[in-house]
Amino acid sequence: MKMKKYTVENLQQGWMLIREEMGENAIILSVKEVNGQFEILAASPDRKSTKKKNKLFEVFKNKFSKDDDIKGIEQLINFLLKLKESSVPANILSELQDEIIRNYLPVIEKINSVDILTKIETQPLKRKFINVLGNISSGKSTTIAKLAAILKFNREKKIAVASFDFYKIGGSESLKKFAEIMQIPFFMIKDEKDLIMYKDSFDEFEHILFDTPGNIKDLSDVEKLLSFITASPEAENILTVPLTKKETLIDRDISYFSKFNIHHMILTKLDELENRMPIYFILSKYEYRISYITNGLNVPKDIVEAHQILNGMFEVSGK
Hints:
Layout: E1 2-8, H1 11-22, E2 27-34, E3 37-44, H2 56-63, H3 72-84, H4 90-112, E4 129-133, H5 140-154, E5 159-163, H6 173-181, E6 186-188, H7 192-197, H8 199-202, E7 207-211, H9 220-230, E8 235-242, H10 247-257, E9 264-268, H11 277-285, E10 289-294, E11 303-305, H12 306-316
Parallel strand pairs: 4-7, 4-8, 5-6, 5-7, 8-9, 9-10
Antiparallel strand pairs: 1-3, 2-3, 10-11
Helix pairs in contact: 2-4, 5-6
């Protein structure tokens, strides 16, 4: 049985996250409220394979049929990990190894051929309206606090923070608290009227950081408003992508948020990764550049410019 503890701001967010990551069969083992947040311990039963070992090679061939299927890497790794724990005959493992070399070497070469210079955003946070988007639990609010610290303390800019995220309990409270600590003005935006009302106030600042709800697709009015805001020539639209999500979910999020004219991405939760495969997946599949990578929850420390990590990764791999 696979178990994982989730710390969330409200129970609805917790249920959605657990179902998304652990599936419909997930079981809630315990719920505990700690300092205004909820700790949920959930589990999902292991799915035992009923296939015989002598058919593993055929299963492999059925699952991995396309040379350029980047998504297959995640399946491949999980498949090989299961094989490692089993007593598969040596001849079967040998055949599998040959199949990997023949079918997946082109995929590996595609990843290694990425021109890292074309994947790094070297001039982020330049426009007046900086819209930070991302799904639930993408690390959006903490990331905005870190960006605010960079702009105010490192670049000495006059900034403000505004939030659309009033749809869930405590949705903007943590960000508001960060803003208070850093002595940054904070605005709550509920509709277009609020934007118009605050227009003169916004003119006083060099940058406005906008926090957005994670469940935009369920909020048609907010979706329309953000479509209008992100289309502005003064807008810089950033997508936060958590590296802890499965590749299929990363693909789904990027596909949805691409309609908001995304300029670059921030990869979050590097510190929770067991391997770097999600980074390779993102670099090889999407055209968006990466500006920053976050590696923890500490504000303002746990954020680095993308080149500090990506250059190191590719130096190790021989680039």
